[in-house]
Write a structure and sequence with these properties.
The complex is a heterodimer of chains A (about 325) and B (about 425). Chain A contains 15 helices and no strands. With about 325 residues, chain A is mainly alpha-helical. Classes of the chains: A mainly alpha (about 325), B alpha+beta (about 425). At the A-B interface, helix 14 of A face helix 17 of B. Chain A: It holds the Pfam family BPD_transp_1.
Chain lengths: ~325, ~425
């Protein structure tokens, strides 16, 4: 509230000068200096209490050898971080993330494709929009279980393949070469709807006149996409790319529910959970969480350097 | 620490029916004294989400009739281990709870009220040393289990097998006969659910030596040698899978379904604690068979011509050290062990020394199996094995390294039995060096 006019300030000063100090009077459209902060106390308090304090705690744990229960937390300096960066087993699980990263880019491409098609006049397009977004609304545990039955030997997928004459389908989850691909595909199925909606919203915010002008100039569909849609939704593409990359580094839910990290599907987060709850190394697990946070921040920073946040001007 | 691992099964029986009957209803302070007559309100935390609204309500009625001043409320946790560990960071974890496996013995006094001396409680209860630290007992078992293999008798008989296998090799031959002569899957690992794999650790008593884990396991640099328990048991698991005698795709197994599979004879054998027998009998009846189809055999390993099987306590009831109504909580624990009939109904051995033995273990009597109560680690050594496990990151009581073992055996991961066991021995020895004796 920097725009308090001077007569009011004078009035307030006079009011506070008279003992006992009466509360400053408030006129229409004016307020105390502290008023906005009073409104912010609740959200800021909650933010600090439930976000920053726990994160600070986690950082503190990462420098200890706490077992998750003991009242005493023994400081061990940088031991946990040394372990993470020297033990090859710790980092090799990031290779699993590559499957999900590849899946994420496939997912972005598909989402963009569908969003573009469905933003033009298409028959029963609202129905298709619903179909594509629907999986995102389903609970992740339910999806895990559904796909577990879908992918098991003799399950739905195998039954469908048998109809088209595939007699001996592979073990979608049992074969270590396929397991991660199956899981990444499940992840694509689940999250494509979200990207799709983001893209669709961005595309629909592009003014219609641009398309009309392009039509007059005789532009093809591809040209409209290349020169109107793609630049118009550049920011959303950038944003979803960050989300896709950080999401594929932090994959947890789907592999945890479907395979529990067995058969070479352990991701970094699953490994963190195992260290914390299986081997009671909360200190090490906290350090792993901090490392993951730093990696995600780094990826975001690189992304921002490559695609700076500039105003898009289509005209 | 033989106490640590054979309890997941009970938790896993919990069907979907989750019912949080009460939330955090700690007794109000001042309502009843700590010492003296049982009175006030107690919250009992249980892992049995499946029967908290049925059987446990009967317990409540009976108990409150006996102690009219006490009100019992239950809280059932679906993921008992995970949820209770978090709550134990506060003071609010009920009045009576089950000692979670993640608590090491030296932490008992921080969280639980001592119930009495080892000698004193040992006159009444079995296996009190399992939850004792420095001569104080902190928990009483809710039931006592033994270990072995549950199998479908009809399937084994139709494969032409008449006597129990006495060595791992005979067991493999029998499974091969099941594979050759029946349509059943000879052995089901339950790999995907994971915890059934941890049952392979729980029968160290099969070595016939009550002192086994005080002289071997954490006191050995080579637990996976041919003549040591983990070498024998994990070796058998490896051989079963490597010979193709287990289910086709282990990654999509399902525990609830496996009960039906065994009950209906589509699966012949599973290694599980004795707590599983009643559930399998139920499954057999549900599948149109009879409870008599389900047999229970000791682990195929004999010492001097005799089978041995370990007996060990299940989860143990304990009192929250912060409880306001400790007398009432204590009365519940004693009543639960002596009067509730929980152990008998579950097909378990009674936690009382003079309690009844269940009918489900008739097969063990017929095979003249000798029960072995493991001697707990000596004072000061209680946490040693867990420390080595955590340092080595080989989860003896879990499923991570055994899933890897199954993966190697079925050719889905690199290595073979020799290389993997050598690796395990190496990591174990290194961890022992780090932890120190």
């Amino acid at each position: 509230m920097s725009t308090v006019s001077s007569p009011v300030r004078g009035a307030a000063a006079r009011a506070t000068a008279t003992p006992p100090p009466a509360p400053p009077r408030r006129g229409p459209g004016r307020g105390w200096r502290v008023t906005p902060w009073l409104f912010l106390v609740a959200p800021l308090g909650l933010l600090v209490l439930f976000t920053y304090v726990p994160v600070a705690n986690m950082v503190w744990y990462s420098f200890t050898s706490w077992d998750g229960m003991a009242p005493v937390k023994e400081p061990v300096g940088l031991d946990n971080y040394t372990r993470i960066f020297t033990d090859p087993d710790m980092f090799s699980v990031f290779l699993v993330s590559l499957y999900y990263l590849a899946g994420a880019f496939l997912q972005l491409a598909l989402a963009l494709y569908f969003a573009t098609i469905l933003s033009f006049r298409t028959r029963v397009r609202n129905f298709f929009k619903g179909i594509i977004f629907f999986p995102y609304l389903i609970n992740g545990v339910a999806i895990g279980l559904v796909f577990l039955f879908f992918l098991r030997p003799g399950g739905t997928l195998d039954a469908l393949l048998a109809l088209v004459g595939v007699a001996e389908p592979p073990q979608w989850l049992g074969n270590p070469d396929l397991a991660n691909i199956s899981l990444a595909s499940t992840s694509v199925w689940r999250y494509m709807g979200l990207n799709f909606v983001l893209f669709l919203g961005a595309i629909q915010s592009i003014p219609n006149e641009l398309y009309e002008a392009a039509d007059l100039d005789g532009a093809t569909s591809w040209q409209k996409f290349r020169f109107i849609i793609a630049p118009g939704i550049k920011q959303v593409i950038g944003l979803t790319t960050i989300l896709a990359i950080s999401g594929s580094l932090a994959v947890f839910e789907i592999p945890w529910i479907m395979t529990g990290g067995a058969n070479g599907t352990t991701t970094f987060v699953i490994q963190t959970v195992q260290q914390a709850f299986e081997f009671k190394k909360f200190g090490l697990a906290s350090a792993m969480a901090v490392v993951l946070l730093l990696i995600v921040l780094l990826v975001t920073w690189i992304q921002r350097r490559i695609f700076p946040d500039e105003k898009v001007d289509l005209t | 620490m033989a106490t640590k691992h054979r309890i997941t099964g009970v938790a896993a029986t919990a069907a979907a029916a989750l019912a949080l009957t009460a939330c955090g209803g700690d007794a109000e302070p001042g309502q009843a004294a700590d010492d003296g007559e049982p009175a006030g309100e107690i919250t009992v935390i249980t892992q049995r989400t499946d029967i908290v609204d049925t059987v446990f309500q009967d317990y409540k009625a009976q108990f409150e009739e006996l102690y009219p001043d006490v009100t019992v409320t239950f809280e059932a946790l679906t993921d008992y281990e995970g949820e209770i560990a978090v709550r134990m960071n506060t003071a609010d974890y009920g009045d009576v709870l089950l000692i979670p496996t993640s608590v090491t013995k030296d932490q008992y006094a921080t969280f639980f009220e001592p119930l009495g001396g080892v000698d004193e409680l040992g006159e009444t209860y079995r296996l009190v040393e399992e939850a004792a630290y420095e001569d104080e007992v902190y928990g009483v078992s809710i039931t006592v289990n033994t270990q072995g293999l549950v199998y479908n008798k009809k399937v084994w008989e139709s494969a032409g097998i008449t006597d129990l296998p006495t060595t791992p090799d005979e067991f493999l031959d029998d499974l091969q006969a099941v594979a050759d002569h029946t349509d059943a899957v000879p052995y089901y690992t339950n790999y995907a659910d994971g915890w059934p794999l941890s049952q392979w650790d729980g029968n160290r008593g099969a070595m016939g030596d009550p002192e086994y884990q005080n002289t071997h396991v954490a006191h050995s640099d080579t637990p996976w040698a041919d003549d040591q328990w983990h070498g024998i048991s994990d070796g058998l698991l490896y051989d079963v899978v490597a010979a193709g005698l287990s289910e086709n795709d282990p990654t999509t197994t399902n525990w609830e379904e496996s009960k039906t599979l065994l009950g209906s004879g589509q699966v012949a054998t599973m290694l599980l604690g004795s707590w599983a027998i009643t559930q399998m009998q139920q499954a057999a009846e549900d599948a149109g068979g009879s409870a008599d189809d389900i047999g229970y055999m000791p682990f195929p390993h004999q010492v001097d011509g005799t089978f041995h099987a370990q007996v060990a306590g299940d989860y143990k009831n304990a009192i929250n050290v912060n409880s306001d109504n400790k007398a009432a909580a204590r009365a519940w624990i004693d009543w639960f062990a002596a009067e509730s009939g929980y152990a008998y109904d579950e097909g378990g051995i009674s936690p009382l020394l003079d309690g009844p033995t269940p009918e489900t273990l008739g097969d063990f009597d017929a095979a003249e199996v000798e029960y072995v109560e493991m001697t707990p680690a000596p004072a000061g050594q209680e946490a040693y094995e867990t420390d080595v496990v955590n340092a080595a990151e080989i989860d003896l009581y879990g499923n991570i390294y055994r899933q890897k073992l199954v993966d190697i055996a079925r050719g889905a991961a690199d290595g073979d039995k020799e290389s993997y066991f050598a690796d395990l021995n190496q990591r174990w020895a290194d961890a022992r060096a780090t932890v120190g004796e």
